[in-house]
Design brief:
The chain is an alpha/beta fold and 388 residues long. Helices cover 38% and strands 20% of the residues. It has two domains: 222 residues, Isopropylmalate Dehydrogenase, CATH 3.40.718; 146 residues, Isopropylmalate Dehydrogenase. The strands form three sheets. It has a ten-stranded mixed β-sheet with strand order 2-1-3-12-11-4-5-10-8-9, sandwiched between helices. It starts with 22 loop residues before the first strand and ends with a helix.
Length: 388
């Protein structure tokens, strides 16, 4: 059984090492695009850590996304969800691609599989750390003095909001077309309940207590009623339970600007589902590549770990994808699912060592990178294993 959420009240993840078992079952979801290539490197590193630590990781693949649609017609087959629930953790690579794009609202989409597994596992919190590696500072499009010291985490509510609200589309409605004629109309519903905001706020404040003790709560209070409720509840939770933590409020559009203007000033950023989806990708680009950023989706049971980048169908099958975010996701899995904090540190140190030695994949290489130091997907995984 997976360990509890490390950001919940109670002992920190550093206190869990005594709970480490000798074997764990991992449900692996390669998905689409570059997914099978990068998850292979994650498994490779996981096996090497297991051999070194004396822990067995039993990895079993299952279908999700476009691959599942092709095989079963369903982006999340029942067998996959059952396998995920029966595991100690889920390791996901990527879903989606133009092959399955459609304007037909009744056509299955790969992304539906991701939304459904989050809901099915009760994964209401997404953590996306954003940290600058000194060796990659030049990969960022921002000036070195702007990104120096960037170390933040975005805490995103994951099972509410627009992505899970009621939606409908009408195709031939009177008055919806030009000049009052017939046309299309659609709506999506943004909805939150008090308990959903309370629990994500607590996650953020707990995280801040273990970091730099500051939370930035992001909303659109000047327009949205859900945001007005969000801010009221976040402040109540803060005042009653976490008065020692610094709290600031920012509107989402201002946050988008300040992440570029002063990214090093942020510590923990907490926000609702869609805002978090957008801002986390923006924050990721501060580092210069989405291929470097891992994420964890947590609830009260089995957790899911995945890289922040997409399926990159344009480079799928070419063996050039950056596997480091997938490998760092394995590190997050060791920490948050298994309590193996020391072993997670091995992975983080190995990745940093490889980067400091000048090894790069194509997306993080620059004009100063020697051609013989630009590696493919598998070779980069081998370098990380050798550095453990």
């Amino acid at each position: 059984m997976a360990l509890g959420n490390p950001f919940a009240s109670g002992p920190s993840s550093l206190d869990w090492s005594c709970n480490v078992k000798k074997s764990y079952k991992v449900c692996c979801l390669p998905g689409d695009g570059i997914g099978p290539e990068i998850i292979a490197e994650g498994k490779k590193v996981l096996a090497a850590v297991g051999a070194k630590a004396g822990v067995e990781f039993a990895c079993e693949d299952a279908l999700i996304g476009g691959a599942a649609i092709d095989a079963t017609g369903d982006p999340l087959p029942d067998a996959t969800l059952e396998a995920a629930k029966a595991s100690d953790a889920v390791l996901l690579a990527s879903v989606g691609g133009p092959k399955w794009d459609s304007t037909d609202p009744n056509a299955p989409r790969p992304e539906q599989g991701l939304l459904r597994i989050r809901k099915g596992l009760g994964l209401y919190t997404n953590l996306r750390p954003v940290k600058i590696y000194d060796a990659l500072a030049g990969a960022s499009t921002l000036r070195p003095e702007v990104i120096k010291g960037v170390d933040l985490v975005i805490v995103r509510e994951l099972t509410g909001g627009l992505y899970f609200g009621r939606r409908e589309r009408f195709y031939d409605e009177e008055g919806a077309g030009a000049n009052g004629g017939r046309g299309q109309r659609a709506y999506d519903t943004l909805e939150y309940r008090e308990y959903e905001v309370e629990r994500i706020a607590r996650q953020a404040f707990e995280a801040a207590r273990k970091r730099k003790n500051k939370v930035t709560s992001v909303d659109k209070r000047n327009v949205l009623e859900t945001s007005r409720m969000w801010r009221e509840i976040v402040h109540r939770v803060h005042d009653e339970e976490y008065p020692d933590v610094e709290l600031e409020d920012l509107l989402v559009d201002n946050t988008a600007m300040q992440l570029i203007n002063r990214p090093a000033d942020f510590d923990v950023v907490v926000t609702e589902n869609m805002f978090g989806d957008i801002l986390s990708d923006e924050a990721a680009q501060i580092t210069g590549s989405l291929g470097m950023l891992a994420s964890a989706s947590l609830g009260d049971g089995v957790s899911l770990f995945e890289p922040s980048a997409g399926s990159a169908p344009d480079i799928a099958g070419k063996g050039i994808a950056n596997p480091l975010a997938q490998i760092l996701s394995v590190g997050m899995m060791l920490t948050y699912a298994f309590g193996m904090v020391e072993e997670a540190g091995w992975i983080e140190a190995a990745v940093e060592r490889v980067l400091n030695e000048g090894w790069r994949t194509r997306d993080i290489a620059d004009e100063n990178t020697p051609a013989d130091h630009v590696l493919g997907t598998s070779a980069m995984g081998d370098k990380v294993v050798a550095a453990l």
